[in-house]
Amino acid sequence: MSVRWQSLIAVMLAGLLAGCGGDASKARFAENSALAKQLLPKARKAVQKTLDEHFGAPLDSVAWLKLPVNYGKAEGTVKSVDGLKLSVEFNKEASDVDGLTSPELARAGLLFTSGVSAGKQVLLAKFDPKTNVFEALQTLDSPPAKDDTFVAAGHFLRHGRKLYARHCQHCHGVSGDGDGTTAKYLNPRPRDYRLGVFKFTSTGSFPAPIKATRDDLKRVIALGIPGTYMPSFVPMLKENELTAIIEYVRWLAMRGEIEKGLITELKGEYSRDRSKDEGIDKSLETYLGEAYPNFVNEIAGEVGEKWSGAEEEGTAITPKKPRTQDTAESRHRGKELFLGNKAKCVNCHGPAGRGNGPMTEDFQKNPTTNEVYAERGLFDVWDQPIKPRDLTRGIYRGGRRPIDIYRRIYVGIKGTPMPGNSQALSEDEIWDLVNYALSVPYDSQAPKLPKPHSVAEYSTEHGHAN
Amino acid sequence: MRKFWCLFFMFWPIAAIVYSAMSPAYGWWFPGDSVTELGQRIDNLFYLILIIITVVFIGTQMALGYALWKAAHNEDEKAHFSHGSHNLEVIWSVAPAVILLFLALYQMDVWRDFRVKAYFPEGTIETPIAEVTARQFEWRIRYPAPGKKLQPKPQPDDLYAVNELRAPIGRAVMIQLRSEDVQHAFFLPHLRIKQDAIPGQIIPIWFKAEKKGIYELLCAELCGWGHYKMRAQLTVEREVEFQDYLKKLQTDQNYDGFPTSDSVAKKEE
Ligand SMILES: [Cu+2]
């Protein structure tokens, strides 16, 4: 009898292993195929190759030190060099860092900070955590010497990826494309990070939209986005887990932006419809061999600068005056602005703030392509239909603090049609609008509808014939 | 082999005795002592039931073991075929019925104190400290502004938190439980409180936590794929700390970019 039990258990174990193993190790980040399919197949492959090289795969990620991502650096010193083998010692804090055993750490490589190799990233084939011996991938032109210092990158990425896979991936997708398995059931859809656009930020949008800061992302992950399916993850995720996950989200966003940048660049000369052109293959080959590597670095630098720029001091929008006292007069002034032609809130949010203004009934133009959308109503930069907020519900996705609403009105909501008013409105006017917006849910007498002629005014303002 | 089965069935009552006897000391049944007095009474009920079923279990197992043992050594006597015994049927129907009836009556006062509004401690019903709304997949909490009463409808000065409920120590407090979407269950294992949250209903829950600490608040009703995400916490703290917390929430919520404006306003008052 016991023999049968054993075989039963063996069968069950085999089932488990088969279930878990599979092709997970070969998992890849999904391609941004909507864009990539516009390229010549060879150009498309080149983009994939670049991304593989600098970002790796979900389970084998690469820390590209050019990007302003905090990879969870561990610093150390070289103890001895023996051919390809580097025996190293990590700093005290680093030695117990979770993830140093990871082969990903090896792949991420070491960035030397002193000695002949200073500034160079050495890719590694192996790392033995027991002996702290690294094995370099290839012979080094100028091998590091004893006492050279380096930083090893990676464990945040690994930790972040694990947490992301567990908690976020089924909505936000493996590559951060907002197309996880549950995404199709949700409205609004989970954020597609690949545009690098985030809605609820503390940063401004002048002269160009500024990225989200780490703190902005942290706030969203900790508090969730009320009124949507984005849940709050605190206290379930601890501080160090939040840190790791935020870096991972930023990394995915940068990856997506770089992918888009590369495709856009290549599309100029090497779009799919030129496949019949004479000598196109040759030309592409030359380009890939010469200018392309520089361009890759350039675009990574550009994207990276935008993200590190957001972290600089003074990017947060802070009002110069404290909030105007929340009096009936202030609210009244706010309401006039809301309904008036200067702020034009009513065009989208409607006279009672229910989110049903005239612009939601009209055909709108896509501001990037200048094409008119096929359907009525507003769309966001992800090409999803979007409704102006129903302000009577008292749900504020970006937070209900006066400063949050102030920022929403001052900057607008990035990625959505909700415009900023930093030029059009004064500080006092914005505070009046904040006071009004926050009072809408409690306004017991329903706001009076504007007179008919003013409705006509609102619509002509936007150049629509009706 | 015959003896094996006798021993097999005799082994379990012994294991049950050992396990039941050890469990209270090792905290195998509960996540620590209850933090509320009512919870301790619930634990006592639990232990009473545990004792009853242990006794019954041991008794039946011993009887089974005995019967097997006797039969195993009895080669001569033939099995006696029976169509049932009316008397036996009555006994094993009535005995459990009596036990169950006893339990039903015996636990009545605990149930009453836990559930019946008229018996809630004084002051709890008039001044609920918070409204807890379960939602796929988080707990959204609404407190009244300090010095105000919680209203059924949201008020402009209400304070909001998510996944973090706080309550003062040593004071009986009540919360209003709601659900925004599907059925959830508000579960505070350390306080021995479990209550379903039902869409469309406002369900009052009271408790009086006697020990400072941070306790898990879980959803105990499979409410969807993100059920496991509904892990929040209850912080039980001193009354002053609790009031300070509410004030801090209020300051945070009124933040307009000028960290001092609130304290300035307070001085002016
Ligand atoms: Cu639930």
Features:
heterodimer; A: 466 residues; alpha+beta; Thrombin, subunit H; Cytochrome Bc1 Complex, Chain D, domain 2; 7-stranded antiparallel sheet; 11% strand; disordered N terminus; B: 269 residues; Immunoglobulin-like; 2 domains; 5-stranded mixed sheet; 42% helix; binds copper (II) ion
Strand and helix layout:
The complex is a heterodimer of chains A (466) and B (269).
Chain A: H1 2-20, H2 33-36, H3 41-55, E1 56-57, E2 60-61, E3 74-82, E4 85-90, H4 92-95, H5 103-108, E5 110-112, E6 121-122, E7 124-128, E8 133-136, E9 149-152, H6 155-167, H7 169-172, H8 214-223, H9 239-270, H10 280-289, H11 291-311, H12 328-339, H13 345-349, E10 363-365, E11 372-376, E12 378-379, E13 385-386, H14 402-411, H15 427-439, H16 452-461
Antiparallel strand pairs in A: 1-2, 3-4, 3-9, 4-8, 5-6, 5-9, 7-8, 10-11, 12-13
Helix pairs in contact in A: 3-9, 6-9, 8-9, 9-11, 12-15, 14-15
Chain B: H1 2-26, H2 37-72, H3 86-106, H4 108-115, E1 130-135, E2 138-143, E3 159-162, E4 164-168, E5 173-179, E6 184-188, E7 193-197, E8 203-207, E9 213-219, E10 231-237, H5 239-253, H6 261-268
Parallel strand pairs in B: 1-5, 4-10
Antiparallel strand pairs in B: 1-2, 2-3, 5-8, 6-7, 6-9, 9-10
Bound molecules: copper (II) ion.
Structure description:
- The complex is a heterodimer of chains A (466) and B (269).
- By secondary structure, chain A is α+β, with helices and mostly antiparallel strands.
- Helices cover 40% and strands 11% of the residues of chain A.
- Chain A has 16 helices and 13 strands.
- Chain A has a seven-stranded antiparallel beta sheet. In chain A, strands 1-2 form a two-stranded antiparallel sheet. Chain A has a two-stranded antiparallel ribbon with strand order 10-11.
- In chain A, a hairpin with a 2-residue loop joins strand 3 and strand 4.
- By secondary structure, chain B is of the alpha+beta class.
- Chain B has two domains: 2-72 and 92-115, no CATH class; 123-255, Cupredoxins -  blue copper proteins (Immunoglobulin-like, Sandwich), CATH 2.60.40.
- In chain B, strands 3-2-1-5-8 form a five-stranded mixed beta sheet. Chain B has a five-stranded mixed beta sheet with strand order 4-10-9-6-7, with helices on one face.
- In chain B, strand 6 and strand 7 form a beta hairpin.
- Classes of the chains: A alpha+beta (466), B alpha+beta (269).
- The interface between A and B is medium-sized, with 27 and 25 residues.
- Residues 134, 184, 219, 221, 223, 227, 230 of chain B line the site of copper (II) ion.
- Copper (II) ion binds at residues 134, 184, 219, 221, 223, 227, 230 of chain B.
